[in-house]
């Protein structure tokens, strides 16, 4: 029974997920969602600085760091790519990156499609430098798009809809446990999840209206968090002597004979 539930509701392997998700992102609905995410992400990356930026995403073609001011930007993916965006093959849960070496870690729809999202987040935290940033983008389960995806997960055996419904509050709790402080939370894409180009183009005003009014039901969310680790100040050992113990000398050794006795003996 457990194996049947895992096959039906569990997250698909990356070999099945990546092609299906990339095909959906080329559809009118998927491309509209990507444009909204990219616009929000470009604004965020404009004020995030450092030496290295790493991108993790199930989409092998998404180059989300195009407007970043960081010189060295790269991505890692378990499947072979053309090398333009993802420079090496690696499992998301086992990154071949040194500890505390990446200034900005970008997680794009990777937690909900991971078999162990908490472990993946810990691995991403391991490679983030102290006071570095982590940017998490995911589907908002409390949105029209999120409800649509969960209903499709029940009735359709499609890799692109078999994902975890991770609440935003849970992601922020995980980040705090890993010594990250959430700095900013944004939501976007307030249009109905109708896969029709004409309808989506003529309902773009929903996004402008939804930003101040319907913020909690945005189709996706973006969390920017900073790794806060207090520096460790070594405590110098105090080697000063304490109070003298009766019967023991702590200064200049005293003579066994008094001074008057020594002078008399010399004469």
From TrEMBL:
Pfam families membership: Methyltransf_11
InterPro entries: Methyltransf_11, SAM-dependent_MTases_sf
This protein's record includes keyword Methyltransferase: yes
Keywords: Methyltransferase, Transferase
Domain of life: Bacteria
GO BP field: methylation
Single annotated GO MF: methyltransferase activity
Domain Methyltransferase type: 89-136
Protein name (Swiss-Prot/TrEMBL): Methyltransferase domain-containing protein
């Amino acid at each position: 029974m457990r194996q049947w539930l895992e096959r039906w509701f569990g997250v698909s392997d990356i070999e099945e997920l990546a092609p299906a998700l990339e095909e959906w992102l080329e559809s009118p609905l998927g491309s509209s969602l990507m444009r909204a995410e990219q616009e929000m992400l470009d604004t965020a990356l404009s004020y995030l600085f450092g030496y290295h930026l790493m991108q993790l995403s199930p989409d092998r073609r998404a180059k989300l760091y195009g407007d970043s001011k960081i010189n060295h930007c790269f991505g890692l993916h378990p499947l072979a790519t053309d090398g333009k965006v993802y420079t090496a093959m690696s499992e998301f849960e086992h990154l071949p990156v040194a500890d505390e070496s990446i200034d900005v870690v970008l997680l794009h729809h990777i937690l909900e499609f991971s078999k162990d999202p908490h472990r993946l987040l810990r691995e991403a935290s391991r490679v983030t430098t102290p006071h570095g940033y982590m940017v998490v983008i995911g589907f908002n389960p409390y949105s029209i798009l999120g409800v649509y995806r969960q209903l499709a997960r029940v009735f359709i055996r499609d890799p692109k809809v078999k994902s975890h419904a991770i609440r935003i509050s849970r992601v922020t709790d995980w980040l705090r446990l890993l010594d990250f402080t959430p700095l900013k939370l944004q939501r976007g894409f307030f249009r109905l999840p109708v896969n029709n180009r004409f309808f989506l183009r003529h309902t773009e005003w929903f996004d402008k209206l939804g930003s101040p009014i319907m913020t909690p039901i945005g189709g996706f969310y973006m969390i920017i968090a900073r790794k806060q680790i207090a520096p460790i100040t070594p405590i110098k050992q105090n080697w000063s002597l304490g109070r003298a113990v009766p019967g023991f000398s702590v200064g200049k050794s005293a003579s066994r004979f008094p001074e008057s006795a020594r002078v008399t003996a010399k004469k």
